[in-house]
Amino acid sequence: MTLDEIRKEIDSIDEQLLSLFERRMQAAVEVAKIKQKTGQPVFNAKREEEVLSHVGEAAGNLGSSAKIVFQTMMDVSRSLQHNILGGGMPLKHLVDEAACEPLSGLHGALVACYGESGSYSHAAATQMFQDARLSFCPQFSNVFDAIQSGDADYGVIPVENSTAGSVTEVYDLLIRHQFYIVSAVKMPIDHCLCAPKGASLETIQKVYSHPQALRQCSSFVSSLGAEPIQYASTSTAAKTVAQWNDITKAAIASKEAAKQYGCVILEDSIQNQKNNCTRFVAISRKLHIEPSANKISLVFSIPHTTGSLYRVLANFAALGFNLTKIESRPIQESRFEYYFYLDFLGNAVGDDTLHLLRWLSEELPYFAFLGNYPEQTSGANGEA
Ligand SMILES: C=C(O[C@@H]1C=C(C(=O)O)C=C[C@H]1O)C(=O)O
Questions:
Q1: Catalytic position from the list 140, 280, 300, 321
Q2: What is the CA radius of gyration of the chain?
Q3: Other CB atoms closer than 10 Å to residue 34's CB: what's the count?
């Protein structure tokens, strides 16, 4: 047979597979109708195991490949059935009720920022909100507490840095409080070494900053031969070294914070990577989805079975969603089990997207929709 002839043969087999696939899905729809009447759950682990074990044996050498194909078909079959049974309705209602005007048009919102005045989060808040009424929180947890108590409507915090990675504490707090991400901005971050007047690079013995900033500037700090010391935030470190007025102690912070607290800048752009950049998010008790929302964040856990993460992710690939981040965090109450955080580009109002999310919300042991929001990229140089 020539290549063309073999391909014709493949086309003809595909036609038959397609019509069998449609028949199988139609049968799944009939199963769903019975389940609707009898109140049985969509997922039947025993039946799926039986199908897979039969397929594995019947396909001989191709057993494991055939199992992948059939497992995928059963995933599709369950997703159709959930749709018929109205699965994931709470998520649909949440998304339907979340439509709102752009946050940038909101005036005078109460916004809790991480750090002190002059922090990078302060700069991010200024990008995201117009004439916000700002308050400052020394710890990440204080931002969440301010929102929980109603002292603030929104909070602005960093979630991820291009050099030092995720701010894991923020991810853990997001799960604990079940808040939503309503906006995001990516900003270039330019750190400086600042100290009280009279200090010079030669007098500095200790460098104070947030662990993330210390990591981002690790090469500079070690070349200086100074001891890195963790502090609550970059801006608090700048304020504190100014108050101590000790020429052996410096902070890593923004130029803006250095200026605000009367420090001198001993060295500029001290981060390991010149194009260092951080993502900040605005969080809220209430979900808002504005028309320009282009990023979706989720957190879920998966069953402790072979291939379960692969199978969840395969659905995103099949629908052509571009995943921009995946991060796992330990589930603190269970040993060596994980929450997975996923960011992808999309709008939850679209049918395909909502269909997938509703299905996942029904089937995964834990599923939380963290938000659908616009992400801006700031051209500003991380000032403030
Ligand atoms: C079709 C059913 O529903 C689900 C899908 C299955 C399938 O597509 O083969 C098998 C078991 C269930 O998890 C069923 O219960 O038979």
A1: 280
A2: 26
A3: 9
| CA of 350 relative to ligand 1 center, distance in Å | 27
- Is 105 domain-assigned? no
Q: Are residues 242 and 321 in the same domain?
A: no
Name the residue of 78, 85, 359 to mutate for ligand 1: max ligand atoms within 8 A of Cβ.
Answer: 78
Ligand 1 midpoint to CA 371 (Å): 31
Distance 46 CA to ligand 1 centre (A): 9
CATH code of the domain containing 259: 3.40.190.10
Q: CA–CA separation, 180 vs 97, rounded Å?
A: 14
Minimum CA distance residue for ligand 1 atom 1: 28
Cα separation of 177 and 154, whole Å?
A: 13
Helix (H) or strand (E) holding 123: helix 120-128
Render each residue's pLDDT in the chain as its tens digit; 384 residues. Answer: 999 999 999 999 999 999 999 999 999 999 999 999 999 999 999 999 999 999 999 999 999 999 999 999 999 999 999 989 999 999 999 999 998 888 888 899 999 999 999 999 999 999 999 999 999 999 999 999 999 999 999 999 999 999 888 898 998 898 899 999 999 999 999 999 999 999 999 999 999 999 999 999 999 999 999 999 999 999 999 999 999 999 999 999 999 999 999 999 999 999 999 999 999 999 999 999 999 999 999 999 998 888 889 989 988 998 899 999 999 999 888 877 899 999 999 999 878 899 999 999 999 999 999 999 999 888 644 333
Q: What domain range is 226 assigned to?
A: 191-267
Task: Please report the atom of ligand 1 found closest to the CA of residue 27.
Answer: 1
pTM, full prediction: 0.88
Same domain? 199 vs 247: yes
Does residue 255 sit in the same domain as residue 329? no
Token representation of residue 144: 């969440």
Q: Is the CB of 28 under 6 A from ligand 1?
A: yes
Which of 38, 61, 85 marks a domain boundary? 85
Q: Which amino acid is at 327?
A: E
Residue of 278, 316, 321, 369 marked active site: 278
> 47 C-alpha vs ligand 1 centroid, how far in Å?
7
Handedness of CA 317, 318, 322, 325 (dihedral sign): negative
ipTM of the complex: 0.99
Asked whether 359 and 280 are in contact (CB, 8 A), the reply is no
